[in-house]
Each structure stands twice: as C-alpha cells, then as structure tokens.
C-alpha cells in the first residue's frame, strides 16, 4: 500500500532536497541511515534516518562539538568537511570524512547510536586526499579507498595505515576526477563504485569489479552506469553514489544531482541534492533504473513524510539539528536560553561578508518558498539573509531606525533599498519566486524579494533581485543556498522563524 497522499504510488525526488551532497547510506535491520557533506557549516555532517529510503528525518549531526570539528575563521566557503562514508560494522556505526582545511585531513568517528554522541575523531595521516571509504573483508581487514582512486589498509581503531597507498583504478574514458569510491562485497565479487567526470554537468557513476577488495579491477563494459551529461533531463550533475540493499533483497542507489532552472546555461541554487534510484543486477553488474523528479515508489509501504512545522519558535534549550552556523557556534554568541523563547545572536564581526558574523540558518530546500522572522534588533544590527556563500548573499537588516536591503555579488556590494522601521513588531521576509518576465534564453533561475510585513500581514517588498547571483553557476563551489538570521553588530534577538514552500 502506498502512502494515502500518493494515489499514483510514486515518490518525489530528490528524497533529501536542498544542499545535501555526497550521500552515503547504510542499513541496519529495517532502518536506513544517511550522511552528507557540510563544508564550512557547523555542526558538520548531517545525519538522516529513514524506514523506507524515501522519507528521511534528520536525527543529528555527526561532528557537533568543537573537540571534533574546528573550522578556523580562515576556512573559505566550500572548504571544511567533504564527502563522508557511513557504514555499520561489528555492532557500531563508523563514519570517515575529510576536513580539507589546515590541521584537518581524514578522520574517523564511531557511535553506537547514530543520533549521537559520536566519538572523538581518530586521525588518519596516512590516508591521502579526499572521499575516503571504509570496507571490511572476511578476515576483518579494513580497507580505506580514496579519490584518485587509491587504497590503503588501515586500523580503524587507531588510524594507523599499513604500507604505502596503492593505485587501484582511474576510471574510464579519460574522464576527469575519478573520486567518491565505495567498495562492496556482492556475491563472489568486490565492486568498486566511483564518480567521474567532475561534479558538474559531466558527472557520472562507473563501476569495476574484482575477486578481491584490492583488485585488480575489471571495468563494467556499460560504464558510466549513471550519467545525465549532454541530456536535457531536469536532474543534472548526477554522480557521487552509494548503494544499499533493502531487506527484501532489492538494491538502491543514492546519489547527488542538481535541478537547474531558467534559460542557458541553467542555474542551480539549492546546491547538490540527494536522489534515489532503483538498481538491478544484470550479468553481475549493477544497472541503474529510472531517475525522475517523480518516479515509481519502492514495493513496500511508505512511512508518512516527516511532519514539517513551518515555524520554529525557539522554545527548546537547544537548536534543532537542521540549523547550521558558519564555522562555529559559541554558546555566548548563539543561545535560546538568554531570553527564553527567543534566539539570541551576539555579533563578533561586521557584516555577513565577515567570517566572524554570527549566523544561524537552514538550507533552502524548495525552488519556491518564503521565510519570515520576527526580529527585536534592540541593541544591534542584524537581519535575514539568503546566502549562497561569503561573497554572494542578499540581506535585509535593521540598524537603528532603518531597514535596508544589502546585495553582495562577488566584489560588488551595495545597499539597494532602505526605509524607516515600520511601527509595531518587525517581521523581515524573503520570498523566492519564479523569475520575472520576459523569459528568454538568458532567464535566470528565480527572483529573490526581500521586505517587511505590514501590520495587516501584507508583504511590502523593498527589493526584488535576480536569483542567478545566488547560484552555483555564478558563485562556484560545492554548497547551496542557506536562509537564516544574523547579527552583524551588538545583540539581536529573533522570536520565531518560518520557512515554507510556496506554489509557483
Ligand atoms: C567531493 C567529491 C565531489 O569530495 O565533490 O561530487 C566533492 N563529488 O567527491 C565535494 O563535495
């Protein structure tokens, strides 16, 4: 039986919308767990749970305390935490991941409960590069395979490596960036799944197999087994995949993809999102089934989608796991306890361009949506921002008696609108809508309107700005939009924050 809301027995892809790239998945009994990259955001590595592979709930973050993750102020946008592998072995969860910043490198953490706490990190100085994978063979030997693609034997308890890393396989067809390896034992073979072609439009997934975990590997004649390169498919950049087997024996692939919008070349603003597709085995090779924005549901009952209350009232002593900050979140700068029921942000730096700005936000997960927040700016300057990265964001902020919209796109930064603070409670709002006409080959992905709510609830727009400047095609990098609250100076408090998808 399908979910009652879904009469056609289909599900919506992406299964985890918004900036959730590099998914890694594992199953324990009837429960699936999935982890993603988090880059310059803290806490790091969002961790999701599902019973059906389709509906996912974030149950925590793997690196959620400074003893596990320090992202110095010099951490650039799209620096920090890259591409985890999540596995369950010997009664424990294991997660290996790379911090590409100084003093980082590859590190491994474990947990008995994936919601946390996760252990202190074990460092792996002998594992080079990014995208580390973990696989155990029948003897209990642990193999760490990494981008390139290379491999080294490790002791996952100590981080010790045995022997120099060996080259395994560099992919097919002279494609660039063989990366994201995952190694699995299926039947009589070991399968090495990789991404190649780069994480942009040329992205794809290829596979090779061997009788042993360390090769030699024989490439699949049908490689790449998944790519949308050169197509007009609405889901592009498909790659960086992981496989999981369901209790009924069926196989599934999670992978990243993007949803470009607008004219040419197509802009994606939500970052790389997590998609799901079925996999069958033909002649000993995995074959990836249909990939669509809506596609046939798995043959088991779907659990109800997680309930999403648009409003966060900040009534808990801690922030819910989907809230992220830039690089760190010191308790004296971010608290829901100082004024109960409010989120208090205390500034350390200047503006959102400043790596020291105090920020709390959540991923934009829908192409069209709106966000609102009730702000008490009393002793500071702060507001609401739609942020792609440090150098690309649109802000609406209050400072003294003024509300203003500030746009930053690369080296351009300008105040585009200002007005006096209206009487009564101050609600700042952002609306992401379809791009304004005329529509032609150059049309961008969307429009970002920023304004205030009038006492009667109407949205008084101060500025309607082109969304393309907050897209990955303009800004570069690996992340996606995050919408949130910030304090640029002094102390700024927020009573609630609403985020909700809207119709076209
Ligand atoms: C990640 C690499 C990739 O480490 O992008 O799409 C890099 N794949 O495998 C950052 O997410």
What does this structure look like?
The protein has 504 residues and is mainly β. It has 2 domains: 290 residues, Glycosyl hydrolase domain, family 43 (Tachylectin-2, Chain A); 191 residues, Jelly Rolls (Sandwich), CATH 2.60.120.200. A hairpin with a 6-residue loop joins strand 5 and strand 6. Bound molecules: (Z)-L-Arabinonhydroximo-1,4-lactone. (Z)-L-Arabinonhydroximo-1,4-lactone binds next to strand 7, strand 15 and strand 20.
Top CATH class of the largest domain: Mainly Beta
Count of alpha and pi helical runs: 1
Mean of the pLDDT scores?
95
The proportion of residues forming helix, as a percent range, comes to under 10%
Q: What structural category arises from helix and sheet content?
A: mainly beta
- The radius of gyration computed from the alpha-carbon positions, rounded to a whole number of angstroms, is 23 Å
CATH superfamily of the largest domain: Glycosyl hydrolase domain, family 43
Distance between the termini: 30 Å
Number of strands: 37
Compounds present?
(Z)-L-Arabinonhydroximo-1,4-lactone
Sum up the overall morphology in one term.
globular
Total number of distinct structural domains: 2
Range of strand content:
over 45%
The multimeric state of the shown protein is: single chain
State the CATH architecture of the largest domain.
Answer: 5 Propeller
Major pleated sheet: 12 strands, antiparallel
Fill in the CATH topology of the largest domain: Tachylectin-2, Chain A
Uncertain segments:
1-6
